[in-house]
Amino acid sequence: MPARDRLLALFVAVLWGCNFLAIHATLGQFPPVFAGGLRFAVIAIPTILFVPWPKVKIRHLLGYGLGFGTGQFAFLFIAMDTGMPTGLASLVLQASAPFTVLLGAVFLRERVSGRQLAGILLAVAGMATIAWQQAGNAALLPVILTLLGALSWAFGNLSTRQAAPDNPLNFVLWMSVVPPLPMFALSLAMEGPAQIGHSLSTLGTTTGLIGLGGLAYVVLFGTIVGSGIWTSLMRRNPAGVVAPFSLLVPVVGLSMAFLVLDERPSLLEVIAAAVVIGGVLFGSTKRRTREPEFLAEAETPQPTGVR
Q1: pTM of the model
Q2: Is the pLDDT of residue 288 over 60?
Q3: Sorted alphabetically, which PANTHER family does this protein's record hold (predicted)?
């Protein structure tokens, strides 16, 4: 992987890690489910007008939109609005990786290696420790909601694998067309028109401007710029080389939450976070095997796929 691409991958990890601060700012102005609907509606309108259809089956697009979009962000935003620390949210959401492996084994008949299983067990042990720690602080529900967001993301990943889009970025952009209607309907039912109307009528206040800035960051940098660069990196490099850089997202998220929001995780939570990241990394990388030289020389390089 060229040095330029490594720097770009680090840049995306920073963008995505700071995304949780932007979500925190957005939730200071908008109700959580309504904020999730706005996040996708802002992308959906220009996508319908200017982005070509990704040429995938509708059911796969709906599955990705409902899983990755509606489910993940509804649960995540509600969790953060009800007390989930910003830094820990960036970490717990990484549970989507082991969830994806397990769901792939159940629904797609994908084989789970011993290495993957060991990584999953490590990650689960770290998550359980964080949940136990939060339960002692009467904050278990936000952790559970964040885990449900990670599970929804994993279901969305299954739809992506089945869709196998030729243009992943177009697929991601068109996915944004799915969540707004169900999220706005859910917002009306849960949060009510009075709360929604108040958030819109106070946009000119300091809190409103900060919320708009957070929403703009989530849309422009967290989604369009970050996903665009990440997709190009996955096209140019093996997925197994690029994917581990996403493990830096919770590192950035925890660090920025500490610096900006003064969130101070306990020593036990820091150790558990390291266990989670280590488990995901261990389970997502393949053991290197030394091949005989004559086989290595005869092997023809194959084009890499896009995850």
Answers
A1: 0.86
A2: no
A3: AMINO-ACID METABOLITE EFFLUX PUMP-RELATED, INNER MEMBRANE TRANSPORTER
